[in-house]
Amino acid sequence: MDNKISDLLTTQRSFFKEGKTQEVALRIEKLKLLRSVIEVREKEICDALYKDFKKPVFESVLSETGFIISELEYVIKRLKDWSKPEKISSSWTNFPSSDYIYSEPYGTCLIIAPWNYPFQLAISPIMGAIAAGNTVVLKPSELAPHTSQILADILEKVFDPAMLAVIQGGIPISEELLKEKWDYVFFTGSVPVGRIVAKAIAPHLTPSTLELGGKNPCIIHSSAKVELAAKRIVWGKFLNAGQTCIAPDYILIDKSIKSNFIDAVKKEITAAYGTNPEHSKDYARIINSKNFDRLSNMLLGEHCVAGGDLNAADLFISPSIIDEPSLESKIMEDEIFGPLLPVISYSNETDIYPVISNYAKPLALYVFSEENSFSEKIIKNYSFGGGAINDVVVQVVNKKMPFGGVGNSGKGAYHGKFTFDTFSHKKSITKRGTWLDVPLRYAPYTGKLGLISKLIKKF
Ligand code: NAD
């Protein structure tokens, strides 16, 4: 495999050097072809996602194929404009000049994807990397093998391997890929593996984006509309069976409304998935037995007030609500990444800080409140990737907003134009006029200090 990887890199490097990816028309043509192949094979993609973890078709269209087709459309429409040098107002001190920011592709990029939104989280960075004029090697997740295979089939149809290639495999392949010198690495996955990736690429100082995870708080204030909060939280938490990096991890709720909230959540779970969610066609499964065991262990000794039903043979865990786990419990130790929702109450607003600050900066934070001052205070007091007021997960939908973490939850951001920018080096170019040459800056400096001192501080 070693040779195969380095041969592929050599091929991609020469394709890049020949300037083929500089042609914006080629990038647009490829993205259009990608869009139409995805449209034609949408059902096959949904079938693959179903085979991997019984992902409901509705959720696959919403969060994988539909999401991607819409983003491709957005990028294709704007790419010509984005690729042009951006004219910036010039500095008076450089008169006469005009200033520009050129978007320069990095070169050959490695994209490592996770299993939880295996289609979206592979294609979304790819579209930005290609749009920006890079070549790409994608390593999809071995834990979603059917989706990984259809990704490979589709991408092989659309791209010459010199421009984009897929290498399937698990950790050993990923390790081999990370031994190479890349021009950019885009990784989506867990915090521990994010650290491994950061360490592996450090010797080459490779620029990178790390899209990681975290323990996302969801704060519910006494003024919140409890029924609506319950409905929205049940949707966002149990979508993809809780295996969503920005799903609310745990609830922090004012004590006075906790029991109403739990009743409302139970009602919403039944409304969404019926009395036995195992029979619901709208509820996904846990990706594998390792994660099933990890999640089942979190339930041991906890007070489950809803759900708590397990079927190892079917990798099924019902939507579950855990009442008041201790902060030292297994479920509150780390990111849950499954359909278990701890509910912790607070008596005073001052009780919120010690809970949230127990964990590293999360990828998302949510607050439900009808009091704007409370929501604003929470948003300003805590550092986190992004979030929402009075809803969960929906912040990803707006292509004009960057998506990414901070601190432990990651570095860099993407979506919409941010993906194009992520995969572009921004090169500042000042074009000087030659019809005038103001002599002020040149030595000898005698007699010029007073004027330069005034001018430089003003402009
Ligand atoms: P993971 O970190 O286990 O795996 C991600 C990728 O890294 C896979 O392709 C895998 O093959 C590879 N990998 C795993 N171990 C490796 C190693 N030791 N060396 C090199 N490569 C390795 O993550 P996962 O289980 O696929 O996904 C779940 C995690 O990803 C959660 O923590 C979740 O929060 C996070 N996530 C983050 C985002 C985001 O956008 N920020 C999106 C989805 C998932």
Explain what the structure shows.
The protein contains 15 helices and 18 strands. The chain has 459 residues and is an alpha/beta fold. It has 2 domains: 2-212 and 407-426, Aldehyde Dehydrogenase, Chain A, domain 1; 217-396, 3-Layer(aba) Sandwich (Aldehyde Dehydrogenase, Chain A, domain 2), CATH 3.40.309. A 7-stranded mixed β-sheet has the order 10-13-14-9-8-15-16, with helices on both faces. A 6-stranded mixed β-sheet has the order 5-4-3-6-7-17, with helices on both faces. A 3-stranded antiparallel β-sheet has the order 1-2-18. Strand 4, helix 6 and strand 5 form a beta-alpha-beta unit. Helix 3 (42-53) crosses helix 4 (57-83), helix 3 runs antiparallel to helix 6 and helix 9 packs across helix 10 (258-273). The model has no long low-confidence stretch (mean pLDDT 97). It binds nicotinamide-adenine-dinucleotide.
